[in-house]
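#structure-requests
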Amino acid sequence: MRVLGLMSGTSADGVDAVLAELSGAPHRPRWRLLASAAVAYPPDLRRRLIALGQGDPLPSAEILELAEALTEQQAEAARACDPHGQAELVGCHGQTIWHRPPAAGRRGASWQLLQGPLLAELLDKPVVFDFRSADLALGGQGAPLVPATDAALLGGIGGWRAVLNLGGIANLTLLPPASGPDRNAPVRGWDCGPANTLLDLAVSQFSGGRLSFDADGTWARQGTIHEPLIARWLQEPYFRQPPPKSTGRESFGGPDLERRLRELAALTPDDRLAADALATLSSFAAAVVAADLNLQPRPLEVLVAGGGCRNGVLMEQLRRRCRGLAVRPLQELGIADCQREALAFALLAWWHHRGHPGSLPSVTGARQAAVLGVRVEPAGGASREASGGRRSQEASGA
């Protein structure tokens, strides 16, 4: 089956799309990437999404218009990836606006902005979306969801294997060994903390909005890393909290950046603040991941994906702080850094189609695994007629 996966992460910089062919056993599918594309959000759309994701108030009418504009961008990315309409099904994550993990007897909730029925109509394809709600309803974090797909697509090696996403938020998957005493151990995974969210916000602020990211860490390379400050930040409650755990821009956004910049400003001259802040924040992102990787079980290798792969300083700091681990790009296994999460949501949509659970209680903390997502059909057009024909044949016993 050919499935289109669409993903926009915490960085809110655009939509990654993949067209994948999936077949075989759901728990270990045969897969092939047929095409991929990336479509950047227009600057004003990105600005409004980030503002809403950090809790800035917005009138209901503007939220509605934002949802429509975002859905149209998802459709544009889908057409760029699959111009001939080969996909039979679309899996779309939408854009996370707010994420509230469960805490103190209160269930979690998560809001992914998207108009699923509109996307189905724009593409004339069935769409699976709203992937987090079922796990949240079962007491889980609703995130991260990609560890389950990592386990299915990548499998194990001779020891524990880590898969790291350096997106807006850094998150980890730990895959048990293919053999040995830990071979039947559960897959683990959690959100480590900020990767690009604070960095990108700082770059935008220091450049007066001219830049949206620090290309290859060039600016950070000019600064001094304030290690004592990083050591203090690592003692904050979220980083000391054991998994399962998840987070997002609502915790590591503009207000959090301003607090950290005030602490940095007390340690560095004004003319050095920008470079020192970017150097320290890049190192902090790597230190957060390294601290989590130093927990047991310690993996043999770390496969890295996400936009942070293209930040030379961040990758250098990750390797420096993860001595003894092989740190290499996931792309070496045939999945580019911008393809991993889009492929994951293609697989999650296919699992929904097959009735296969897409969540892992060992990762999210839910009471049980669940089939994830909600499926909508296009309101009219060829897809509806085809699906109606199939249903008629099934009803008649054909």
